[in-house]
Amino acid sequence: MSIDKTRRLVLASGAAAGLGTLAIAFGQGKEQVIKVTAKRFDFTPSIIRLKKGVPVVLELTSLDLTMGFNAPDFGVRADVLPGAISRLRIVPDKAGEFTFYCDIFCGSGHESMSGSIVVG
Hints:
alpha/beta; Immunoglobulin-like; 2 domains; four-stranded mixed beta sheet; three-stranded mixed beta sheet; 2 helices
């Protein structure tokens, strides 16, 4: 495929998906990546600080068991598997402090496995 044809394809894909996707495709925008590690009965970090309107990708992994990551105020959820990386993209649209939690039972102590997303 020629470079011009490839460029037109990327432009068309970007136009269909929105300008944010187009900027990322050309390397003009880069989302912040925050690594979050889960282990029985803890998330590290337990407080995630974000800026309103600024996209971020959470890279989630577990050190021991299959866990869940649920941030209902942002409409995101993922299974977090040992040795694997799950990615969640968030664009915070409101300021405040919001809870995230494990939603897969992982043993006694599971009910306290939570943290906060603080958006300023």
